[in-house]
Design brief:
- By secondary structure, the chain is α/β, with parallel strands linked by helices.
- The protein has a domain of 264 residues: Ribonuclease Z/Hydroxyacylglutathione hydrolase-like (Metallo-beta-lactamase, Chain A), CATH 3.60.15.
- A 7-stranded mixed beta sheet has the order 8-7-6-5-4-3-16. A 7-stranded mixed beta sheet has the order 9-10-11-12-13-14-15, with helices on one face.
- Strand 12, helix 7 and strand 13 form a beta-alpha-beta unit.
- Helix 1 crosses helix 2 and helix 9 crosses helix 10.
- Bound molecules: zinc ion.
- The site of zinc ion has 6 residues, from loops.
């Protein structure tokens, strides 16, 4: 089984193109069996469509001006910024074009993929805004909203992480990874939010339309260094934006938000590779401490986070969109590594993220969860398996519901 990471060009370019061919040619491209002949036709059309996509990306590319002298100064002074871009502590760098990118593109076109998307509808529990309004100070609950979006009630605050509610995680409205399931909530129907947290600038974590709709109803946007200018451009008032570097913290009432480390990369276009920081978040409340991984490869830094900030009661960890090739392997952890990360963080309950919403990899849509479950069982990790939109009040033991299994995709 081979896999692929998200937003690692050129799959980010080829995959949407191949899907567009699929739609144009009547669905054969993403069928489970496709021969080399089909792949060659698809490759040809893909290249033509990539040209269109390139044009779109060039037009939609975001400027990497950080929004003023002080913001620029902070970027340049960051220990994570070196030689004109942000860098990982272990020296691994994501590149836009490389031999391994080409290998994966070819693999994408030739591999017989299995269960790319669900055959039966993914169950979605609609978010009831009334349940998330007037929150008691001693209540803690959360709802996974699909992919990496999470809604959290803690100490009377309502927090939303990496909100992506629109149809496609793409710079182009009509092309790119399309949702497997409807969002359980819209930006319009959410109650007022105390804080929105962003982990990095990739399209499946940071979406212009969703952010612009949330601008008026959110008190504070906590973002990695370098992202503030994007949000401002999308309508978020400057005074609502806090840009943080790793190990900087922001207090808000009884909560402390600490920007913690991650091994990943950033880009929204062809000319902004690693121009904005990526990070994980630790939320420290009166009684609970939570961790949100964002995207990361596995590295020793998680142990340091727990050493500095203490154990995490709940960890929200990326499990999907991995690949065994080159730097993909180092920038996107596997499900087994996510379980190891949970243990490094002295985690209580593990909540898997980054799966079941977008097709960003070569693995089946449910493989990340099956692998995470197997590893969690092996190591005795308390793993929660909420349905999209389900309200979870952790009670110390994971509620295992194998909702993703069906006749079409048994264990
Ligand atoms: Zn990413």
């Amino acid at each position: 089984m081979r896999h692929n990471g998200e937003h690692q060009a050129p799959l980010a370019l080829i995959a949407p193109a191949a899907r567009a061919i699929d739609e144009t040619l009547g669905g054969a491209m993403t069928d489970e069996k496709k021969g080399p002949g089909r792949a060659i036709v698809a490759a040809g059309v893909s290249i033509a469509l990539m040209a269109i996509l390139f044009t779109g990306i060039v037009i939609s590319r975001d400027e990497t001006e950080y929004g003023g002298f002080e913001r620029n100064r902070r970027v340049l002074a960051s220990p994570q910024y070196n030689g004109g871009s942000f860098v990982n502590p272990n020296g691994v760098t994501g590149t836009l074009f490389s031999r391994e990118s080409l290998d994966v593109a070819i693999e994408y076109l030739l591999t017989e993929r299995v269960d790319i998307q669900p055959k039966v509808a993914i169950p979605v529990a609609k978010i009831d805004p009334a349940q998330w309004t007037g929150l008691p100070r001693n209540e803690f609950k959360y709802a996974w909203l699909g992919h990496s979006s999470v809604l959290i009630a803690i100490d009377g605050n309502l927090i939303l992480a990496d909100p992506v509610f629109e149809e496609r995680a793409s710079p182009i409205s009509w092309m790119g990874p399309k949702r497997f399931h409807p969002s359980p909530v819209t930006a319009e129907t959410l109650p007022p939010l105390d804080a929105v947290l962003i982990t990095h600038d990739h399209y499946d974590h940071l979406e212009e339309l969703t952010i612009s709709k949330l601008a008026g109803k959110t008190g504070l946007f906590l973002v990695p260094l370098g992202i503030g200018a994007l949000l401002e451009k999308w309508g978020v008032p400057r005074e609502k934006i806090a840009e943080l570097d790793w190990w900087e913290a922001r207090e808000a009432g009884s909560l402390t938000f600490t920007a913690t480390s991650a091994v990943h990369y950033s880009s929204r276009g062809l000319f902004d590779l690693n121009q904005r920081l990526w990070l994980s978040w630790t939320i420290t409340g009166k009684e609970k401490q939570l961790f949100i991984s964002g995207d990361s490869g596995y590295f020793g830094g998680f142990r340091d986070i727990a050493k500095k900030l203490g154990p995490m009661d709940v960890t929200f960890l990326k499990i999907g969109a991995y690949n065994d090739k080159g730097t993909w392997r180092q920038l996107h952890m596997t499900p087994e590594e996510a379980v190891a990360e949970h243990m490094d963080l002295s985690g209580g309950q593990m909540v898997p993220l980054h799966w079941a919403t977008f097709d960003l990899a070569l693995h089946s849509w449910y493989e990340p969860m099956e692998r995470a479950m197997t590893e969690a069982k092996r190591l005795g990790v308390n793993i929660a398996t909420p349905k999209v939109g389900q309200v979870v009040i952790p009670d110390g033991k994971g509620e295992i519901d194998y909702w993703w299994r069906s006749e079409e995709n048994p264990e």
